[in-house]
Amino acid sequence: MKKIVISLTLFFFIIVFVISSLIPKEREESKLNLLKEKIAQKKAIVHHDHSRYDILKKKFNSPKEVTEACMTCHVEEAREVMKSNHWNWESPQYIKGRGVVYIGKKNAINNFCLGTEGNELACAKCHVGFGMTSSKTFNFKDSTNIDCLICHDNTETYAKAPEKGGAPVATLDLSFVAQNVGAPKRTNCGVCHFFGGGGNNVKHGDLEKSMFEPNKEIDVHMAAEGSNLTCVDCHITKEHNISGQMYSLASSNRNRVYCEECHTETPHEDGILNKHTLKVACQTCHIPIYAKVNATKTFWDWSTAAKLKNGKPYEEDDADGNHTYLSTKGSFKWGKKLKPEYIWFNGTASHYLAGDRIADTTQPLILNPLNGAYSDLDSKIIPVKVMITNQCFDPVYQILSLPKLFSPTPGEGAFWTDFNCLRALDVGMKEIGLPFSGKLSFIETKMNWPVNHMVSTKENSVKCNECHTQNHSRIAGVKGFYMPARDSNSIIETAGFGLILLSLLGVFVHGIVRIYSSYKLKKRG
Amino acid sequence: MKEKIYIYRAFERFWHWMQSLLIIFLGLTGFEIHGTISFFGYRNAVAYHNIAAYSFIVLIIFAIFWHFATGEWKQYLPTAKNLKAQINFYLFGIFKNAPHPTKRIVLSKLNPLQKLVYLGLKLLVIPVMVFSGLIYMNYRYPQEGGGVEGLNIGSIEPVALFHTAGAFLLLAFVIVHLYLITTGTTITSNLKAMVTGFEETENNEETERLKETENYNDNKQLSEVTNG
C-alpha cells in the first residue's frame, strides 16, 4: 500500500512538472519590447541640418545645379548612387541555366505596361536622374544627371513632371527643397513604388498610398500609433545600396531584407509555431490579405485596347474609380482585400527576356518563374500576388511582341497616340532590335509578385486551420509534402473508417441479439 | 455461493482510468489535428495533444515498472487454452446465458482473448503510437546544421500514416472494449470491478482449490476475499 501511495505521489509530481513545463512562458512580449526600445533610440538620432549652408541658399535655375551643389560635399555619394540599381536600371543577375545577364527596368518585360524600352520619356519619371529620353542614349556616367532630391527631399514638395524623362516640375522652389534634405521618408519612396504600373497599387498590391500613413490594421510596423517605421528602417541602406529586391527584376538570392534580422528565426512563444519558420516565411502567416484599402490590378487584357468612341479614346471606371477599360491599355480587373497565392521559393528566379522563343504556347507563360520546392533546403512557402495578362505575341517568331506605347508627337507609331496595333508593334520591336512578322496574336502571361508588406497585427495573422484543413486550405496548391489535416492517405482513411463502422455494427448487432435472446430465455422461464 | 474477489489493485485501477481518459482525450485532439473533427480549435488541439502525450508516456513508464515489479506482466502471456471456448462464448454461449468459460481469478484475471488483444496493444499499437508520436512531435524539417540530425528525415508522411493507422485501431478497440464491459456476470459487474477492485463472481472449485495454494495466500492480504 505504501509503495502505491509513493508511486502515485511521484506520478502526480511528474504530471505537474510536465504540464508546467509545457505552459508557454511570457517571453515574446519582452523580446518585442526590446525591439521597440531599439527603434525608439534610432529615431532619436537628429539628422544634419542643411539649411545653414550658403551654397544651398542661392536661387537654382535648373535641378542639375542642385546636384552640383550637393556634390561640392558629397562626391563619394554620387559615385555610390551611380553604382545603384535605382540609377543604372539594371544589375548583373545569375539565372540558372542561362548564366549572368544584366536585367533591370532597362530591358525587363512585365505584364503591365510591358516594358520601358522605347517609352523612357514616360517611364523615366521614376528614374533617379534627369533627361532620360532613351536608356540607350542616356549618359549614365554624368553625375550631374543624378536626381538627389527625389529621394532626399524632406519637404514633400518636390515632384517629377510627367513625360519629361525624369525632370522635376518646373515651378518648384528648389532652394527651399535643397535646404531641407534628409533621410528618405515614406513619401520619397512611395511616390514611385506605390504608383508603379501607372496608378495607385496597380503593380504590387501591398505597396500603395494607404501605406503613407497606415494604421495598425494595415501595417503593424509603419503605423504611426505603432513603431512608425519608414521604408529605410527595414531596407537598410549602405553606400546608397538599398537592401531588398523585387523578383519582377531580380533573380539572385542576395541583398534581401528578412524579418528575421529584427525578429530572429524563433520569434514565437510557442515552440510549435517556431518550428514552422524553417519552411514557412513570416509573411505567409502575417500577411493574411493584401490590397487592404485600395484595389490592385489583377488582370489586364491588352487585346481589347484601341477601341474608340467617335474616333476618340475613352475610359470606363468601376464604383471605386478604378479604370476597367482604357482605349490605350485594354480591359482590367481589380481586387481588394485579396488572399495571396502561395508558392515554394528559394530566393532565386528566372526571367523571360525579350526575344526568348516560347516553347509551349498552349500554356500560360510565366514571365518570372520563382524557383523552389519542399525538398530544397533553402525554400520556404511565401505569399505572392499573381498578375494575369493577355498580351501581344508574335505567332510566327513565337516571341512576345512589345509595342511602342508612348511618344509626345503623333504619327511616330506610338500606340497611345495613334492606336494602330501593328504599326506600334513594328516600331516597338524595331527599337528593341527584334524581328516582327506583322502577325499579332495574344498569349496569357503570369507574373509572381511576392507580398512582403501590409503585415497584420498578430491577432489578425493567419489561423492554424486556414491551412491545416481538408477544405479550401490556403496552401492547397503547395505540394511536395504531408501536412496534418490537409493531407491523408486514402487507403488508411478507408480502412480506418471501415474498421470503425464494422466495430460499431458488430457491437450493435451483438447487443441486439443478446437482448433478444435473453428476452426469449426469460420467456421460456 | 457468491463471493467477492479482489481482482484489480489500486494502482492498476488508477492506471486503467488514467489511461482511458488520456486515450479518449488524445483521440479527440488527435482527430482534430487530423482534420476529421473540430472542437478545441486547431492550435489548442495540438498543444493539448502534446501535453496529454507526454503525460501518457509518464503513465506508461510507471505501468511498465508496476507490471514487472508485481509480476503482473505474466497475465498477458498468450495461451491457446480456452481460446476457442472464449470465442465460442462471445459468438454463441453468451446468447444462451452460458457461463463464462474462463473464471476471473487473481492469478489469471484475463481471458485468453483479452490476453491476446491486450498483448497486441502493449507490444504493437501503443509502442507504434508512442514512437511515431515522439518523432511527430520532435520532427525537424530537413535543414543544414542545427536540430537533431537523427530526426532530419525527408518527410513526416510515413510517420503520420503509422500514427493515423494506430489511432483507428485504438478507436476500434475502445468501441468494442466499451461494449464488452456489459458482458460480465451481470451487465455492470465488469465496470464495478474496475471501479472498486472487487469482482462478484460465482464461487467455484477452482478458486476454492487455489485458496489452498501458496500463491493465493501470498495475495490474500491484498485481496481480502469475502464470502457472500
- The neighbouring-strand order within the major sheet of chain B is 2-1-3
Tally of extended strands of chain B? Answer: 3
Number of helices of chain B: 8
Q: Which spans of chain B have pLDDT < 50 for at least 5 consecutive residues?
A: 205-228
* Overall pLDDT score of chain A: 92
Give unreliable regions of chain A as ranges: none
Q: Name the beta content range of chain A.
A: 5-15%
Mean pLDDT, all residues of chain B: 81
Radius of gyration of chain B: 21 Å
CATH homologous superfamily assignment of chain B: Transmembrane di-heme cytochromes, Chain C
Count helical runs of chain A.
Answer: 17
Approximate strand percentage of chain B: 5-15%
Distance between the termini of chain A: 47 Å
Model description:
The complex is a heterodimer of chains A (525) and B (228). Chain A has helices at residues 2-22, 28-43, 63-71, 75-81, 85-88, 120-123, 149-152, 174-179, 186-193, 231-234, 260-263, 271-276, 282-286, 415-418, 421-432, 464-467, 490-524; strands at 91-95, 99-103, 237-238, 241-242, 296-301, 315-317, 323-326, 330-335, 341-345, 365-366, 380-394, 399-400, 441-450. Chain A has 525 residues and is an alpha+beta fold. Among the domains of chain A are: 90-126 and 183-467, no CATH class; 491-525. In chain A, β1 and β2 form a beta hairpin. The mean pLDDT of chain A is 92. Chain B has 228 residues and is mostly helical. Chain B has one domain (2-227): Transmembrane di-heme cytochromes, Chain C (Fumarate Reductase Cytochrome B subunit, Up-down Bundle). Helix content of chain B is 61%, strand content 5%. Chain B has 8 helices and 3 strands. A 3-stranded antiparallel β-sheet of chain B has the order 2-1-3. Chain B starts with a strand and ends with a strand. The model of chain B is unreliable at 205-228 (pLDDT under 50). At the A-B interface, α1 and α17 of A face α1, α2 and α5 of B.
